[in-house]
């Protein structure tokens, strides 16, 4: 049994002196302030201050829910640090497809102990090793861009047990100091892996942020219109959107952006009703809104790339078939799974991002 873990982060503030007179004066950027495990026995949490944070079971990014370990196994916990506080925002699951069958990292049983959720663990190399509930590595800091020597990058590997269908992927995670809100996720496979047709990385908890607006090249898809009057307890699935319908950054990177349709005061509101108070963990806890996005590098994708979303009208309540265990999402159906799908190739890379900018500001900035 592992103790509940609460992550306390301190924010280091910097002041920059701008010299006006000498034309050749250089303005030095603040040194990145990383969130890293202190030692190999620390909780498995990594990130950057005023940016994205990633953690593994059994660590909790918030520690706000009594008698829990911060969520299910088989998921990357995705959080955001701002003003010294980390909030959980989403989860990312790994879903390899072998011979047309998709396996789900968070709901399929482990071959180790038979419990739901694959075991994930961290390493500073792709050596398989074995599961540890601790950090094992602080991550590796490098300077990835010779043209920008002050930019730092934190990287680590996320290893996992082999899937029942024979798939055996692993991930390399990266965070750059010049893009603190963005997590790079690169997918590899071991030699003993079955051939994967696809290995989706899916953000699985869009309902928590009540994501309802999906920004594509020529339209904004509204989940309330897409899923209409659907009001059951299951997922509602629609057709994916091909890469040709995706937005592109100035560099030509395909990108898709999702945000809540609600102003912050509505998003932060929680009905004062016994059923909702019993499910208060679904209450949006950050004191700010975040836009979420996926992107891929220009030239590092093919025509199979798609945007896939599904929706829910009621918050997830495990595998229960008792409709009394479910509560409706305030404001109507929202996107739950939010992902990019592409034919698998070893080393393919996706980026998942969180931003305090609105979707329009974010897209204009790219």
Descriptive notes:
The relative contact order is 0.14. The radius of gyration is 20 Å and the shape is globular. It has 4 helices and 22 strands. By secondary structure, it is mainly beta. It starts with 33 loop residues before the first strand and ends with a helix. Strand 4 (75-82) and strand 5 form a beta hairpin. It folds into 2 domains: 1-12 and 29-203, no CATH class; 205-366, no CATH class. Mean pLDDT is 90; it is low at 1-28.
Structure summary:
The chain is built from 4 helices and 22 strands.
How many helices? The count is 4
Element order: H for helix, E for strand: EEEEEEEEEEEEEEHEEEEHHEEEEH
Q: What is the beta-strand fraction?
A: 25-35%
Distance between the termini: 45 Å
How much helix, percentage-wise, in residues?
A: under 10%
Provide the low-confidence segments as ranges.
1-28
Shape verdict:
globular
Q: Identify the quaternary structure here.
A: single chain
Structural class: mainly beta
**How many structural domains can be distinguished in the coordinates?**
2
For this entry, give a set of tags.
366 residues, mainly beta, 2 domains, 11-stranded antiparallel sheet, 4 helices, 22 strands, globular, disordered N terminus
């Amino acid at each position: 049994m592992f103790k509940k873990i609460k992550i306390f982060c301190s924010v280091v503030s910097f002041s920059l002196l701008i010299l006006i007179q000498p034309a050749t004066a250089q303005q030095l950027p603040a040194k990145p302030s990383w969130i890293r495990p202190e030692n190999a026995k620390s909780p498995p949490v990594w990130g950057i201050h005023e940016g994205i944070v990633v953690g593994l079971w059994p660590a909790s990014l918030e520690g706000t829910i009594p008698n829990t370990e911060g969520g299910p196994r088989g998921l990357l916990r995705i959080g955001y640090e701002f003003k010294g506080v980390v909030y959980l925002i989403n989860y990312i699951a790994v879903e390899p497809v072998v011979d047309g069958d998709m396996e789900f990292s968070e709901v399929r049983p482990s071959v180790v102990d038979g419990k739901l959720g694959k075991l994930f663990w961290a390493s500073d190399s792709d050596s398989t090793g074995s599961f540890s509930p601790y950090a094992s590595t602080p991550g590796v800091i490098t300077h990835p861009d010779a043209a920008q020597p002050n930019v730092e990058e934190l990287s680590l590997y996320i290893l996992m047990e082999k899937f029942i269908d024979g798939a055996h992927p692993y991930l390399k995670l990266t965070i750059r100091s010049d893009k603190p809100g963005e997590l790079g996720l690169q997918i590899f496979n071991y030699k003993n892996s079955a051939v994967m047709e696809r290995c989706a990385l899916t953000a699985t908890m869009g309902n928590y942020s009540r994501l309802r607006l999906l920004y594509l090249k020529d339209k904004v898809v509204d989940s309330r219109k897409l899923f209409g009057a659907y009001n059951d307890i299951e997922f509602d699935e629609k057709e994916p959107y091909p890469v040709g319908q995706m937005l592109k950054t100035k560099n030509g990177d395909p990108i898709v952006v999702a945000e809540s349709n609600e102003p912050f005061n509505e998003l932060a509101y929680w009905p004062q009703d016994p059923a909702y108070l019993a499910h208060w963990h679904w209450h949006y806890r950050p004191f700010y809104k975040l836009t979420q996005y996926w992107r891929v590098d220009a030239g590092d994708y093919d025509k199979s790339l798609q945007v896939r979303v599904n929706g829910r009208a009621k918050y997830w309540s495990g595998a229960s078939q008792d409709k009394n265990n479910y509560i409706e999402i305030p404001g109507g159906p929202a996107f739950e799974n939010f992902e990019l799908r592409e034919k698998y190739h070893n080393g393919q890379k996706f980026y998942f991002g969180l931003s305090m900018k609105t979707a329009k500001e974010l897209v204009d900035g790219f």
